[in-house]
Structure formats: structure tokens, C-alpha cells
Amino acid sequence: xxxxxxxxxxxxxxxxxxxxxxxxxxxxxxxxxxxxxxxxxxxxxxxxxxxxxxxxxxxxxxxxxxxxxxxxxxxxxxxxxxxxxxxxxxxxxxxxxxxxxxxxxxxxxxxxxxxxxxxxxxxxxxxxxxxxxxxxxxxxxxxxxxxxxxxxxxxxxxxxxxxxxxxxxxxxxxxxxxxxx
Length: 181
Prior knowledge:
Elements: H1 11-26, E1 33-39, H2 40-46, H3 48-53, E2 65-69, H4 79-83, E3 92-103, H5 118-127, E4 132-141, E5 146-152, E6 162-164, H6 169-176
Antiparallel strand pairs: 1-2, 1-3, 3-4, 4-5, 5-6
């Protein structure tokens, strides 16, 4: 995860781009992946052996966040239900999720047939000629900060990754809820 732009505006943006780069290296058609975000300086101070295993020897960046991939998300369990079961320890500053989905342009919204259940809607979207495959990486911090990166399969280069804090607001809210008391 070393080719992430170092000029990214914030540690959270850098973490999102680092996770996007990592996911890109795994290829497409991957399961969703969950990451804890920990303060890099705190990790170095409190768990130096783990920091060494993660390659975090350079102490020049004291404001960074280190993504730590969590166990695999259970197959077959809806993502929203799974996220509702998560509680993070205090050492975790934030979390991130990368997930692939199909999306349609806003112009297709008017042509969605009425009365489709979730399975039929998913099939309709999968068969739509204007569908796009997208990988979304969304990260949030305990303080409410959020960042997202979107990568289209048809434009699968680092220079085409879109970033912004409100690109996937529903997923950001679901991740934020994992920090609720």
C-alpha cells in the first residue's frame, strides 16, 4: 500500500486511498472488506511489535491512520445487519469498508418498474445496459469525519478514482453507527 499519494489533504483521505489501492491490487469480484483505522503514532507507541510487522517503522508521519483489515464479513448476511453487530474498542479511531456494487446513472431512475422486490430489483439493475460496476471505499472517524473513494471498473486507474466526503452517505452513516454507545 505504498503508492498512495502523500499529498492527500488529510490522514483520512490518505487512508481511504490506501485502502482503495489495496483493494485494486486484489482485482474485481471481491467480497466486502472491513478495516479498523488506528492512529499510527499510538500504534507505534502502544504496540511496537505489531507496528513492526505492519512495516510502520518510519516515525516521520505522526498524524497518519493505519488501516487494519478485519476478519472476513460473513457470506450471506446482509451488510446492514452485519454492521449492526460491530462495536469497536477505544483504540480504534475509525473504520472503513470497501464494497463492490452495481449502480445506474440518475437518468435510469425514472425507468425502474414499480413493485419490484429486492431480488427482482437487483436482477433488473444487473441486466440494465447502463449499469456500471463500482468499488466504493468509505471511511469514518469517531468524531464524525468521513471520506469516500469510488472506482469504476471501466475506468480502473488510480487517476480516475473519485473522492469526497458525501459520495456514499448511507454507507457512511451505517459505519458511523458502529461507534454509537
